[in-house]
Design a protein that fits this description.
Helix 15 runs parallel beside helix 17. The protein has 4 domains: 215 residues, Thiamin diphosphate (ThDP)-binding fold, Pyr/PP domains (Rossmann fold, 3-Layer(aba) Sandwich); 98 residues, Rossmann fold (3-Layer(aba) Sandwich), CATH 3.40.50.920; 170 residues, Thiamin diphosphate (ThDP)-binding fold, Pyr/PP domains (Rossmann fold, 3-Layer(aba) Sandwich), CATH 3.40.50.970; 57 residues, Alpha-Beta Plaits. The chain contains 21 helices and 22 strands. The strands form 6 sheets. The protein has a 6-stranded parallel beta sheet, with helices on both faces. It has a 6-stranded parallel beta sheet with strand order 14-13-15-16-18-17, with helices on both faces. A 4-stranded mixed beta sheet has the order 9-11-10-12, with helices on both faces. The two termini are 46 Å apart. The protein has 582 residues and is of the alpha/beta class. The chain is 36% helix and 17% strand. The structure holds thiamine diphosphate (TPP).
Amino acid sequence: MTEGRAPILLSGNEAIAQGAYEAGVAFAAGYPGTPSSEILEALSRITTVPVEWAPNEKAALEAAIGASLAGARALVTMKHVGLNVAADPLFTAAYTGVGGGLVVITADDPGMHSSQNEQDNRHYALAAKIPMLEPTDSREALEFTRSAFQLSEQFDIPVLVRSTTRLSHTKCVVEPGTSHPVERSYELTEDRAKYVMIPAHARQRHDHLLERIARLTQISNNDGKFNRIEPGSGGLGIIASGIAYQYAKEVAPEASFLKIGMPFPFPAELVMHFAEGIERLVVFEELDRILEQQVRALGLACEAKPDAMLVGELSLQAAAEVILGRQSPPMVSTSVPPRPPIMCAGCPHRPVFHILKKLKAFVTGDIGCYTLAVLPPLEILQTCLCMGAGIGQAHGLAQVYEGDRPIVAVIGDSTFIHSGITGIINMVYNQSTATVIILDNRTTAMTGGQNHSGTGLNLRGQPTPELDLAEMCKAAGVSRVRVIDSYDLEQLEKTLTEETVAKELSVIIARRPCVLLDGKQAGTLEYDPERCVSCGLCLDLGCPALVQNCETDERRPQIHAALCNACGVCVQICPRQALKIG
Ligand SMILES: Cc1ncc(C[n+]2csc(CCOP(=O)(O)OP(=O)(O)O)c2C)c(N)n1
């Protein structure tokens, strides 16, 4: 990604970063989350301005609002569910408006490739009264992001840019431009009527917001840049946005299109104009019926997808079915062997779950690599709702459950920093008896290994003060805090047994760097078939480096030497020393 006009291949995420760079972004913050994570990483490679991982999306947005207050152009990135976390400042930022342009990227995940739900964040634009731009490819991702900063300043309002997984991760040719640093000095602005949202000020700002949205509606109807009519031949007219537009265009290139690049404010006049002379109007959009409902509310008859397509991604087949009324065979062979996600060989989370299983604990979970403990053969995770929820759930369970099973919450280090500490404060305050295990693998592994406040390194990998999770829990009032090595099975079992029987809150920090950070341990795993009694205990770990030997019906392991990281956990489990690190 360089300056100049030579066309290059960029993913949607890289194009968003390039657009922000070209707009002269002066501050960027976010929290990782697929499919958005690469935006800040790409931006950090092409600019020297502050580009930061925040502990969560709310903190990221608030920091960007601060930079914008001083007149700086500021970018915030997050995945769709991140906007739930950031929604509180977002809604009121629509009232206050901005100083420098403020652009919020929401990367949605239709089909839930890597998410716990597939909410359609276009709803946020309507609910918060914030304009939204929705590009259909990398070229538009760049242009729309650049334009979003201008719109934000022109209309004194944050601007949402919505991407989806297909757009974020698909590469196409774009022509990058040069950066245009904004010529302004950043000042401390005193404007309490605009920025202090006491009810008396907020009422006025709400009126002002409606007036700003009315002016933005003119852009939405008339600008031609975001929402535009592409005349075709015949009587078929298609209203489409985002990636759905690409599918529709491919199956019906002759149709007339109203391409929606700004779904909010909705271009009602343009839609009415488009519908004139159209014999058959079809709305084609991914996830919820947001455009369709607004088209129908204008009294226009239209066709749209069946309910079955409210779930998951659309496709060329879906477009053919809805627009052409015909079933078509898949354009790409789908006979790819399934490859279910699995914790890596040597993952330090695995031994913790092995012991929890032994203790028959009821484990409330959270989101991260460790969520995979829900799958066979571990099958021990009982809940996964949203970041931080496992701690709250364990507390609630422990307050009412009177049986013998230990109640244990597991949470990753990044997730703990994101939203775990309030749960701990709640547990201390309300005298919980549950156990919390922080699975501290020194990274945000699930989303690609990003640094966070606990790693001692910032987004660019430079040293920065390291948050001490144990001290943080002690400061919150937890008296039983223990730090152990996740690979040390004996210590793990002893500690977990002691802490789960204790009738008070304990926090155990199970620490060991992610294997993808730390690499292979010294030595090579060796197997002695003479000693093996086929108990299968090693196989029950579910390590991909140890699979059942298919040449026998007995539960004997076979070592995948190329995968094994020589963590030695299976060696500690084997009761007959049939496995050893040589
Ligand atoms: C609100 C929200 N933001 C971001 C994400 C994306 N995400 C899922 S898990 C996770 C953190 C994983 O890191 P950690 O808790 O340290 O566990 P690890 O994967 O390292 O085991 C992130 C950022 C999300 N699901 N929800």
